[in-house]
């Protein structure tokens, strides 16, 4: 399954620290040899300030060698830096944590700064110390601390670049500490920030970004969005409401474009999310009201997948393709088998394996029933990758709980499902067609009346303006 | 007459005659349409001037025996006449150039002429007729100017006249002031203008006047001395020659050489290079200069040139005079001239590239043309010379294209000419290398653009050939085929350079060429994405015509690419717009369209002709049409079968196809297919009848497919598509007659695998195109046909009509309100969308009428572009 593993494509778009969970997951699944992954982990850790972790990894990889000396030294360095930065930051923190100050702070950042400067002699440099300390904490793995400091910094700072950078840092910290609600909030505000401030160049806390100066603003926005798309996967696949939100976000035109142009592999997650959140008999009662975008997600996703078929395919997307474009149920069944494995191995989708399977079966049977009149139960359960008995149970459940309930009948003798779909009567379609007419005509009349009044008013005030066009004509 | 003479004369007349043939051949079609416009008329007239000239001169040369007789006779009686026409003047001048012996007589003649003019002026002065004085003075000034051109000194007579005029002017003005209203208005005007003219002339010859005033005799002595130095054997020989015609010709044989040397060749020495260069440059662009002669002089000068500076100067002048050789815009440069110009540009580039101390710039500080310059004499150590190599390259390339436009593309000459592209390409590459070396960004991007335009539409093999010649050159550009690996990588790197350069026109063109290249390589998706992301379809209608043509070519190529890759729907949508205009050839600049209701002015016609692409760049329109019609057939026929009401049938996806189909339907008798269209029409009918095998055979027997690369695979793809669409058509057409239909039978009939039959049928059911469902157990399709009674049908129709009426009302209100969506919120977004489309359509129609009245290719291209832009926007959502 290694060819379908996306870790390699995704990691370049992640922060160093965010990649650790991915690598850890790879060790578990065993898609790649464990020692290779460990080497990769070690290489990653070397670049951070997490020396103990790096050293332990080193010991694991090379059990017989001594841990390099440089770690010790760096460690000493880091500790001293830590102390220095902490002192700097503490000064600011003392002031901010003072309840008086907290009350005095307002929305306006400039005013706040002025206030702090006047009353507590806090300068901008000192506030930046918060940022530095937060970043440092992040680098050695103290994510919750980093999140705190970066939050305070963001409240106070006026520097747009550093603020954005703090945004990213905070998001990463929240993700790594697993506070999904906060992370979601953070994600949304970061998204707004990126969408609203297009012209400014983009700078990220991450070390992997190519910091080319003076890039095209549109390009940098695309970069930020690509990054955001990748980072948000963490949030969306962990937050309870995440899948719907993912569809909501990723299917909006701007992000859809981003995915199409710079990272088509995200389509796997979009497709999976669409399948997972499609209504199933079991989930139906619990699910909250969904927006139209989520409801029609499968259809939309199929359209996109079809369009991007030349760029990216994997079992998940081709399952949808086979099912809803080619209507080749046999091929869809095969793809589903593969997709099942892919999903269970995937870092983000792993937890949703069962739901995915359930929904996918639902989709298959729905399509199947819509097209067919008489269905052999054995055949259908075959299509669903289910043993015969289980399949029968499953289908009965499906018929009982979905809308096609009254149309479908099971013929036990012949082991068939009969679906009777009476054609829509003509009067029904006439009613459909003429439904909106009255309202439309009404609004039309209202509009005419309104313009009549407006025109009368304008003739009264300025008769010349009416005569003029007549003369021209 | 001596053999030498005859030979020279013969060859001269030969070339003259051939030129004349050429020019008259070119002028003949031009002369016809001139009736309309005045400007063209005048140009035509002007052009006949030199034609007549060469006529007479070639006559005089070929049989100089009698001619010299008549020549010497003719000018004599005219000598004193004040009024002489220009052509006669030029005649004598040319003769003088050709036969060194007559120089003296001409000089004399001119002097006599001047004196005659002076006399006339004096006479006019007596009767105070300032109008004629003014005229005469103008004539005199012109003569002096000519004197200048042949670098002869100013005769003292002129100075004298000038001085006397000045004095009489002042007195006349004084008189005029005293005596009121004595002069009429025109006269007074002439007087005033005279005053200014004389003042100007006096200023021009200030030095000479001062010298003359100081010592008139000395001035005259200087003058005669100068004249005699220029021509040692002096007037006596000339006089004798004129007097005794044929006999002296024999004598001259011996005496000719020294005369020739003294008269002209003497100037062509290494020292006098700059002087003669200047003379040539001053004569440039004048009406009566013999361009061939000029080139010959310059060629000799090039041989004589010793220093780098001299060589550069002479080369610059030589190349531009070669380009001057043909003044008319319609004819092309002779091939030999072009080749030598190309060689010289190569030389020039090589010289400048190897001598970094010399820079050729378009704008320099003023410097003295007559001085030798070297890096040592310049302050900065760099010699800057005025000139523009990039414009030479541009011109070279343009001339190449123009010659290809004019040569018959089916002859061997065309192929021979095409071979020169190789050398041209290497010249361009060399220039690119040079500009890379000197880091001149603007010309570099121009040169790269030229290079790109030579290779973007060519298949790999041709590009390899071109590149191999470029790489064998001594200096190579940074981007070559070997350095980039493959053709597309080469084009990619060239394009990337142009994207980064600031010029937006280059960027656009590079983008289009890049897309074209991708389309050529059958990389449809990349090409389409690039086209959509470039957002060119929104702005292309404001681009220049050449770019619009490139855009059209790119789009058409994209359509063909889609067709080759089997993306029938995309191909149809892409090609649709250009075919609806019915001006495919014109929009692709591959032929001038015959306008039915309007006549193009000659200028427009000429401009159109100049825009035409050379034949080897053409996209075969017949192939294009075949691709379009076949894809239309595959899209349209199933659709036609699916709709049963007459009303809906009128809405066609592809109008051109539908029109042809209707026409074919009306035919009483259809014979065996001959043209491509016949084939496709009969194939369409076969497809309608469900005879997919006949349809396939007909489509595959179209001969034009052989022109398509990968013809076999395309045919195979078409066969498969025909099978599928045949199945769909069959189902649509015959569904009402069946209750159930076995899938396996269908698979057998259309020889498709059962699986794909099931898939196609399922798709149709899913999309609600077919009211049916599959019976898995029985392996058949069960149709749910609902019979509609007459009453029900009418009810449906009336519902529809009421609907459209409501829509009409909304539209009418929209039109009245001016803006769409200004009134009231619409309950459904759909109608709003539709309205938007209609508005756009309306706008498109407005554009059409405007374009029609303008008649230029521009309006048409714009409309096409706009239409296509919409189309492409609909085809795919990704415009981001």
What this model shows, in words?
The complex is a heterodimer of chains A (473) and B (880). With 473 residues, chain A is mostly helical. Chain A has a domain of 48 residues. A 3-stranded antiparallel beta sheet of chain A has the order 1-3-2. In chain A, a hairpin with a 4-residue loop joins β2 and β3. The longest helix of chain A is centred in the first third of the chain and has 29 residues. The termini of chain A are far apart. By secondary structure, chain B is mainly α. Chain B has 6 domains: 43 residues, no CATH class; 183 residues, no CATH class; 242 residues, no CATH class; 159 residues, no CATH class; 111 residues, no CATH class; 46 residues, Winged helix-like DNA-binding domain superfamily/Winged helix DNA-binding domain (Arc Repressor Mutant, subunit A). Chain B has a 3-stranded antiparallel beta sheet. Chain B has a two-stranded parallel sheet with strand order 1-2. The longest helix of chain B has 29 residues. Chain B is elongated, with a radius of gyration of 38 Å. The N terminus and C terminus of chain B are likely disordered. Chains A and B meet through α14, α18, α20, β1 and α23 of A and α38, β4 and α39 of B. Chain A: Its main location: cytoplasm. Chain A: Pfam families: eIF3_N (PF09440), EIF3E_C (PF21357), PCI (PF01399). Chain A: Keywords: Cytoplasm, Initiation factor, Protein biosynthesis.
